Amino acid sequence: MTQWVENPTGGRDRGPRAIVRAWVEVMVRPRRFFNVGVAPGDQAPGLVFGVFVTVIEVASRMTFGGIGVGDSLSSKLFALIVVGLFIAPAVLHLTAALQTAILMALVPERGGISETVQVIGYAVAPCLLAGLPFPEVRVACTLYGSILLAIGTSEVHGTSLVRAVVVTAIPSALVFGYGFGGVDALATTFQSLAGVVPW
């Protein structure tokens, strides 16, 4: 599950430019991206991408008061290090293991765990903006992330989009609904709308 390939065929490039390019591509042309950007065994770029997006999102929430970890800079840096080195990779791999178990039951001919890690890592791309202090933005980011996860699963594992939606329902709920706060943001948005709409 933690295999890194030195010279993979069809995998992503490394480095800051590759991360930026991957973000743009997966946001704009997800089907093409998942077809050409995910390679068997080459999970390192996808893992780094997912961790990077998660750290940015957490840092944004800290900045705007969405997460309280203390007022000192050192405590915030320590929290980001813990998220980047331990929490985000662990959650990504556990979610990939869960999705792989569901895939085994519903998609007999499928890709491997490494591909699933990459798909989940790249699917969180919209959540780069989810840390902004606007629940509507968070809802949009998490919904689009769920869509990307379904599209990526369909393309990489060679199954229908309908079946991919079923396969990714629980992982999406965990990652986007709770991990990135989509459920709370949706509830906040509905409460705001209920307050301004005359009944």
UniProtKB/TrEMBL annotation:
Regions that span the bilayer: 47-70, 77-107, 119-149, 161-180
Yip1 domain span: 25-179
InterPro entries assigned: Yip1_dom
GO cellular component: membrane
Domain of life according to the entry: Archaea
Alphabetized UniProt keyword annotations: Membrane, Transmembrane, Transmembrane helix
Membrane topology label: Multi-pass membrane protein
Protein name (record): YIP1 family protein
